[in-house]
Amino acid sequence: MDKGLEQLKARMSEIMDLGHAASVLGWDQMTYMPPGGAEARGRQQALLGKLAHEKSVDPALGKLLDSLKPLEKKLDYDSDEASLIRVSRRGYETATKVPTEWAARYYKHQADSYEAWIKARPKSDFKAVLPYLEKTNKFAHEYADFFPGYDHPLDPLIDNFDFGLRAKKVKGIFKELRSDLVPLVKKISKAEQVDDSILSSDFPEEAQLAFGRAVATDLGYDFQRGRVDRTPHPFTTTFSIGDVRITTRFNKKVLSEALFSTIHESGHAMYEQGSDAKLEATPLAGGAGMSIHESQSRLWENVVGRSLPFWKFYYPKLVKTFPHFKKVKLLDFYKAINKVQPSLIRTEADEVTYNLHIMVRFDIEAGLLEDKVTARELPQVWNSRYESDLGVTPPNHSAGVMQDVHWYTGLVGYFECYALGNLLSSQIYGAAVKKRPAIAAEIGKGKFNTLHSWLTDNVYRHGNKFTTMELLKRNGLGDMDVEPFMKYLRAKYGGIYGL
Amino acid sequence: MDKGLEQLKARMSEIMDLGHAASVLGWDQMTYMPPGGAEARGRQQALLGKLAHEKSVDPALGKLLDSLKPLEKKLDYDSDEASLIRVSRRGYETATKVPTEWAARYYKHQADSYEAWIKARPKSDFKAVLPYLEKTNKFAHEYADFFPGYDHPLDPLIDNFDFGLRAKKVKGIFKELRSDLVPLVKKISKAEQVDDSILSSDFPEEAQLAFGRAVATDLGYDFQRGRVDRTPHPFTTTFSIGDVRITTRFNKKVLSEALFSTIHESGHAMYEQGSDAKLEATPLAGGAGMSIHESQSRLWENVVGRSLPFWKFYYPKLVKTFPHFKKVKLLDFYKAINKVQPSLIRTEADEVTYNLHIMVRFDIEAGLLEDKVTARELPQVWNSRYESDLGVTPPNHSAGVMQDVHWYTGLVGYFECYALGNLLSSQIYGAAVKKRPAIAAEIGKGKFNTLHSWLTDNVYRHGNKFTTMELLKRNGLGDMDVEPFMKYLRAKYGGIYGL
Q1: A17–B43: do the CB atoms touch at under 8 Å?
Q2: DSSP string of A75-128?
Q3: Considering only Cβ atoms within 10 Å of each terminal Cβ, which end of chain A, N or C, has fewer?
Q4: Region class of A446: left (phi > 0), else alpha (psi between -120 and 50), else beta
């Protein structure tokens, strides 16, 4: 191997491993850490972050990347080697634009703000978090200004989650999506409503865990390279291609919550597990932009996991494990897990109204960055948008503007990925079925290998080598498209609600 | 605070936190990590070790320590500040004598050798581990030579575990201990033997875990700053003074194994939890030499946990939890958990014969370092010593020379701490009871607060500020002494065996 490339690999491996070590500390913090460990853990996390940052902005790394330009040009763009140089350079260029001192203050803000939110949220105490929210807004503005020449001030922030995606494009997509969604939601609201009370009973946690594990295993999540643990707010985390873990929480009364959360996280995790083993310990391992990442969780959770064929196969097993369902018909169960109802909480929203939640958040972020909205005005803006868009009024801030962790850990620019992930889940699933038509029938037999292997070949194994747009083009998908998603919704919910 | 001292604190905090981050990774590896995570975890651990080492030998740290000499002289020796400078300098001087390149090779050897041992042990395949054992021996010799001027080549190695302790002193103590122990073991072997089959039945793991947790809580282990998890080889690990965790394993058939292991690890953990909070993130947190550390685990496990008063209190609770014991008398139970029987496995040995196991190991280490024994000869030396000292013959190497992990992770110089810990447990318990005579009676009431608080005041809170000898002197104990331990054994086992 080229000596410079070898040096680059060694440097990037250290940066990645520091990040992954921090992830282990983070996972422990969210799963097993006793309360007394919190203070030192924050300090330890900050140290690992600082060391990774120092290595990410090391001028010697910049020189090395410069010296690798001729090699990069000679190499095939798609090759692992060219991709390593390209993606490493992108990371270096971003990191060096952010002053180290600013980054340290920002990390501190993230931790402090999170602590404040954790305390204030149960009391719906917006006043307590407002100063932090104002700081988050200030940090977001400052961050944008480190990247002069942007088209929209959200763009540099969005780049952190989906490189190359632009606010303008998101606005265009959301405009179209909104004009399609609103009439559909209206039609559904006028149809006969679905009874989802049948989902409630008493479901022992251990049985829920075992059922979720069995389904995740069937889908293709590899427990030799992963595991599932309990946590208050489920997430997926990666320590290496060989160790990608999911987490879940249980509602003893409503079986579907943990189950679909487990399938969702398994989707993220299968993507991370699916990186080509050669990409281990490089920034190419993991996933492309977060829109693609969310598409993979939503594809398994919704397109597969909430489909009728899927439940034709699994329902007898479910009934066997949870006798409560003996008296519930499959079709009623299927309708209940797909019940559409405008609601307050994003994470509990159905597939149809979910994107309306996202648009509220994206528009607010754009407004903040455009200086059209202030942090102080957020509750009022939030509530009025929920009234106009979803027809519901938050009874308090914890069910409103204080419900999501993102802003309260300083994150701005992420939310659109959730909605774009929904669109892409339909597009990518469509591409898979087009190439391998057997997929649809196999789902009804509890077999997912054809779908899993198509996704591995065409999405997973590439890891972070390509941007979202590059990945779509490789799969003949052109651009992000609202229509396949709307077509999917109209067909599915047309059936359920007899539209 | 003095600016130099502030800088020292900041530097030591980073070194400690890197070590503690590595400990989190190690804990996860031994408790929850899926098999696929092993390879990357080794790489991540090595990186954290390397970074900590780089910071430990930074010449700027040496200069800082030099500049702090005048301040140190002005300060009280016992003060936190003087102790921080003193102990930091000791660490710096040790670390800088070891070439970085050597250390990297040694860490690699530790991991490789452990892997080889894990595979070879179940097959008793000594040939497979011999090359690693030879390397361990070579590394031990090389390490000693980094510290020219030693009295005995084991001394620099022993310094890593109990600073200031000398092989010559250990040899003297062991000579006396041996001449006292051998006749006692003989007397016991001629007395009527104890039936410990009454300890065997079926004990559900969850009930064992709950009982162990309850006892550990009573003793004073703080679960707000700790937790217990399952592992194949129980250990205690520290991530901060606020997060000290124990681990355990369960034998469904023999209740006493997990229970006494849990008490033992709680002893280590209470010591670590007991450091003065001001010592957090400094090398003063934790414990003094490992002889003192082992004394704390053995004090709680044996002096307290295997005493008759202790079981007078806990036996009714045990019987209630495990009805098997309804038909077993308290005194028979007490005798059974204290049964003396020369055996093959150190970790399963009783209090009386335990130290004989240690002496075999210590003498072998001394022989290796004195070039009187080669690695190849170990099985033969081991087996003949077990025959002569304990009267048992290992049927295979996994029950013999391959039973302990130490040499197979490159550790030489540790074993004597276990035996010295036994001696010190009697001395320290004696000192506690002398000052607070109520302690003995309180144990019979399931109250341990007086003992725990005496230990906190006189041992725990000092952390690593003092060496073993300094700590003994502070408590009026002069030097390590065989007699209190022998007196304890003679009284206890004289009673049990009617000698």
Answers
A1: yes
A2: S-TTSHHHHHHHHHHHHHHHHHHS-HHHHHHHHHHHHHHHHHHHHHGGGT-HHH
A3: N
A4: left
State which residues form the domain around B42: 3-97
End-to-end CA distance of chain A: 61
Binary contact (B40, A239; C-beta < 8 A): yes
A278 in reach of chain B (CB within 8 A): no
pLDDT value for A104: 87
Of A182, A245, A201, the closest CA to residue A30 belongs to: A245
Q: What is the DSSP letter of A494?
A: H
| Chain A interface, best mutation among B222, B239, B247, by max A CB count within 10 A | B239
Cβ contact A113:A120 at 8 Å: no
Sorting pLDDT into bands at 50, 70 and 90, what band is A1?
confident
CB of A145 within 8 Å of any CB in chain B? no
Does A37 contact B242 at a Cβ distance shorter than 8 Å?
Answer: yes
Residue B13 lies in a domain: yes
The token duo for B310 is 């202790």
> Residues of A numbered 211-230 whose beta carbons fall under 8 angstroms of chain B's beta carbons: which are they?
222-227, 229
Residue B217 in domain: no
- In a domain? residue B107: no
Say if the ipTM goes beyond 0.90. Answer: yes
Can you name the residues that pair with B236 across neighbouring β-strands?
B246
Chain pair A-B, CB pairs under 8 angstroms: 118
With a cut of 70, which residues of chain B have pLDDT below it?
none
Q: Which residues pair with A230 in a beta bridge?
A: A248
Alpha carbon A325 to its chain centroid, in Å, reads 31
The tally of domains found in chain A comes to: 1
**What stretches of B149-254 show up as alpha helix (H) in DSSP?**
155-159, 167-190, 205-219
Judged by a CB distance cut-off of 8 A, whether residue B243 touches chain A is yes
Closest CA to B413 of B108, B103, B143: B143
Asked if residue A384 is part of any domain, the answer here is no
Residue A64 in contact with residue A4, Cβ under 8 Å?
Answer: yes
Phi and psi at A261, nearest 5°, equal -65, -40
pLDDT in tens, A378-422: 999 999 999 999 999 999 999 999 999 999 999 999 999 999 999
Q: Round the CA-based radius of gyration of chain A to a whole number and report it.
A: 23
